[in-house]
Amino acid sequence: MKLLTISADPKTVKGEKRGYLTAIMYLAPYKVAGINVCPMAEVAECQHACLNTAGRGGMAKANATMAPYGFNVPDNAVQNARINRTRLYADDRAHFIDKLKIELFKFAIRADKLGLIPAVRLNGTSDIDWSIRANGEIMQCFPSITFYDYTKVIKRAYKDQPKNYVLSLSYSQANFNYAADCLKAHDVTGINLVYVMRNEGDKQKAIEYANAHAVNFPGSKHRIDGDIDDLRFLDPQNSIVYLRAKGAARRDTTGFVLDYS
Questions:
Q1: Structural domains of the chain, count
Q2: Of 16, 58, 120, 202, whose CB has the highest number of CB atoms within 10 Å?
Q3: 23-33 b/e with 16+ CB inside 10 Å = b?
Q4: Which domain holds residue 208?
Q5: Could you read off the pLDDT of 81-99 as tens digits, one per residue?
Q6: 173-176 long-range CB contacts below 8 Å, 24 or more apart?
């Protein structure tokens, strides 16, 4: 069972044109595998609109099936693999970390042979702090790799991160206090803020509006179309990044996915 997926989706492949080889680790999000790997999911109301159901992760041989740990997911090999990875993380953390480090070492060698810069997103469908000792201090062990993640854990915006780790803060209006705290963290720390828009049209209108009314966004110096590629660590600080909703997120009504109005 491999932990890392390398250049397996169109968005990460786009990064190769900019000189980066990207690997992403997809775990079973929220409580799908019986362990909560997304601590802010219930506050931000993103558990049902998770990217987990986009692409091949959303394809099913039949109707959604009940996962072993009580959470409905599509019936396919992709979901089973994500559950198995997450259970390994939960049941044998030391083995999981050792395996991950071996894969990262091999990935760095592969990128070097291709003449590309290695970039890794460990939280493809999770929100774990990989910089801490309990999780192997992964970033500190691989200073030649650029790591990046989206997070909904606001306190991480105020925490000193490893130099090779870049976080973008995922916004949600599902909870008033959470939304306000996201905006505050963006203004105070300069961490980039990510908005998920309903569709491509809403996304482009939001970008156009923000560019035309930049004075209304004093803490945000840049507006980024985040669907051009997945290289969020290249975005300038103090940016707002706009993404198009994918998978189940297109039907979200909690406030996590935003409509242009």
A1: 1
A2: 120
A3: bbbbbbbbbbb
A4: 4-258
A5: 899 999 999 999 999 999 9
A6: 173/255, 173/256, 173/258, 174/43, 174/44, 174/45, 174/46, 174/254, 174/255, 174/256, 175/43, 175/44, 175/45, 175/255
